[in-house]
Amino acid sequence: MPSKSAKSRRLPPRPQAAMRRIAIVAFPGVTLLDISGPAQVFAELEAIELPGPGYSLSYLSTSGGLVSTDVGMMIGTAPISSVRPHQIDTLVIPGGPGIWEIRNDARLMKWISQALPQVRRIASVCLGAFALAWTGVLDGKRAATHWRYCPRLQDSFPNVRVEPNAIFVKDGHVWSSAGVSAGIDLALAMIEEDFGHTIALDVARRLVVFLKRPGGQSQFSTVLAAQASDVEGRFSALHAWIIENIASDLRVETLAAKAGMTPRTFARTYASRTGMTPANGVEALRVETARLLLESRQIRGVVEVAKRAGFGDDERMRRAFLRHLGISPTEYRNRFSGG
Fold first, then answer.
1. pLDDT score recorded for residue 34
2. CA distances from 285 to 26, 233, 310 (A)
3. pLDDT above 80 for 303
4. Is residue 13 part of a domain?
């Protein structure tokens, strides 16, 4: 045994692992929810015991100081010069009506371009995808943005594979999400990647949101898309009737009679109002019905889902799914049902 006079030897304290810095860029006219949504998700980790280092949040702008958001609220920021790119784990570029002006902000765009190859993970929310596209980092990659701006992103950057229906997309270390609240889904998916399903679920419960909507799930339903095109709502009642009778014989003569038109007039008017032929409209609503049934797992068999949705047989449903969603019903169920 050591003598009483011997000095006790203290082991040096273990160095604590550095927090993972998440840097969120702000600019005048940034959408508040594009910043606050993901930030709140990341901040919830402070109340949870983690198996590794958590996150620290930094809000950066070109010169620092208060930055006005799209709703007039101000966000306190540090200047981009205060953080070196290699100190950043995840760089998040939000969107907002002010996104079009930052292309002319040479200092900010240069800093973003220099940071991209040095950070572990890059992400955009909503229109922030345009900022990433301007740097070239999205070339050859899949990307998401707000559905209204998908055509513009694709036309402006033909080398980017825009996924118009995706809530969020992860392609390598580059992440991108759809409009506003989709940034919450993206942030939860990042937590799940870093800390596992259980912790991500804990965060989701604390925020009273779904764990995450699957990344490839449609941004909006077929019904909503049809309503958006039919701005006068002329066929709203018809769409509701179709959904209620989705397994019935819904040929154009039946729909025309329900709408009080001749088949020829109905077909022409429907196409001009919704951008779809009546047959395509019915098929899209049947895909929507089948999609919801597959997600809910109320019906186990794909054949039965096809009958309930009015396809008649599973092969017709499979072809329709491939046309509208790019995957088969079985693959859709496996990916999105959550079961």
1. 96
2. 40, 16, 10
3. yes
4. no
CATH number at residue 151: 3.40.50.880
Q: Which two tokens stand for residue 241?
A: 């009737």
Bridge partners of residue 125, in order along the sequence: 177
Task: Identify whether residues 239 and 162 lie together within a single domain.
Answer: no
* Percent of the chain clearing pLDDT 70 (strictly above): 86
Give yes or no: residues 47 and 96 share one domain.
yes
Contact 203, 170 (CB under 8 A): no
* Residue 9 confidence (pLDDT): 43
What is the signed CA dihedral for 335, 120, 200, 163, rounded to 10 degrees?
Answer: -30
Residue 301's identity, in one-letter code, is G
Look at the chain and report how many structural domains it folds into.
Answer: 2
CA gap 133, 127 in Å, rounded: 10
Query: How far is C-alpha 323 from the geometric centre of its chain's CA atoms?
Result: 21
Q: At what angle do helices 278-296 and 252-259 cross, to 10 degrees?
A: 100
Residue 1 has pLDDT above 50, yes or no: no
* Mean pLDDT, range 106-123, rounded to an integer: 96
Q: Which amino acid is at 5?
A: S
Flag whether 3 is in a domain: no
Say how far apart CA 169 and CA 192 lie, in whole Å: 15
- Amino acid, res. 100: W
Q: What value does the mean pLDDT of the chain take?
A: 86
Task: Provide the pLDDT confidence category of residue 274 given band limits of 50, 70 and 90.
Answer: confident
